[in-house]
Write a structure and sequence with these properties.
It contains ten helices and nine strands. It has helices at 19-27, 49-55, 72-87, 103-111, 126-131, 138-145, 154-159, 166-180, 189-199, 213-220, and strands at residues 3-10, 30-39, 59-62, 92-96, 115-120, 134-137, 187-188, 223-229, 236-242. The strands form two sheets. Strands 3-2-1-4-5-6 form a six-stranded parallel β-sheet, with helices on both faces. The protein has a three-stranded antiparallel β-sheet with strand order 7-9-8. β2, α2 (49-55) and β3 form a beta-alpha-beta unit. α1 (19-27) packs across α6 (138-145) and α8 crosses α9. It starts with a strand and ends with a strand.
């Protein structure tokens, strides 16, 4: 059964151009039960959102800015999140913002057993990223939505880092394999990937020019991979070990 998600978007910190890739990405995780976006819709700066909200059936929540310098949108989004939590209608939340003010909200929802996906731009502070089960950079989603699947050059692959450096990921993969492998050194690739994501919520193979974990692991040149048919025979089970 698919997980049910509530998508809560901070309009003050997110551009409308990201909405389609956000919803497409989340559809891979489960069913979207709530789609809400928060902002002061009397502000001219948010007028461009109108067509986006209509096209994707997102419910706008009006929150006036009562005091200059204070973000009332954050408070409205936090209150709604807690109401949805206690309704028992969802299994997880997708919090879309680049604002560190939602760090405690993400942590609180996780304490209640919710699966939290954060989405924000690369300027998102580390505390908010770490508070989520998984964090996705919006720039990566937009790039994928535009059909840019080009592989980076080796120099770019080595030096680039979106939240976590490649050399850190290499070392982490090697360590995880050692921790969970059998006597012959082989470890389930899916298990390695799951543990890696728990340790580095912002890790995403798309940050390094790949679309799937297996090609990414192969591209590193540090690990051996082999596959065997599953018990049902319709899929392959992948294993990996250090060279």
């Amino acid at each position: 059964m698919d997980k049910r998600f509530a998508v809560l978007i901070d309009a003050d910190n997110v551009s409308g151009k990201y909405v389609k890739p956000i919803l497409d990405e989340l559809s891979n995780e489960g069913t979207i039960t709530y789609k809400r976006i928060y902002g002061d819709w009397t502000r001219p700066a948010l007028a461009s959102w109108k067509s986006v909200l209509l096209n994707y059936s997102i419910t706008p929540i009006q929150q006036y800015s009562y005091t200059t310098g204070k973000n009332a949108t954050d408070s409205a989004m936090i209150i709604d999140a807690m109401d949805i939590l206690y309704s028992g209608n969802v299994d997880g939340f997708c919090l879309v913002s680049s604002d560190s003010d939602f760090t405690r909200l993400a942590a609180r929802l996780r304490e209640s057993g919710m699966y939290i996906i954060g989405m924000g731009e690369k300027k998102t502070p580390t505390p908010f990223i770490s508070a989520c089960n998984r964090f996705v950079y919006l720039e990566i989603l937009e790039k994928g939505d535009n059909g840019d699947s080009s592989e980076p050059q080796e120099k770019e692959r080595t030096e680039r880092h979106d939240g976590v450096e490649l050399k850190t990921i290499k070392a982490a993969i090697s360590t995880i394999i050692e921790e969970v492998s059998d006597d012959d050194g082989w470890a389930s690739l899916s298990e390695v990937g799951n543990i890696l994501l728990k340790r580095y919520p912002s890790f995403d193979v798309r940050n390094f020019g790949c679309q799937k974990l297996t090609p990414f692991i192969k591209s590193l040149g540090l690990f051996e991979i082999y596959s065997v048919p599953s018990e049902k025979g319709n899929v392959k089970v992948m294993y990996v070990r250090n060279r």
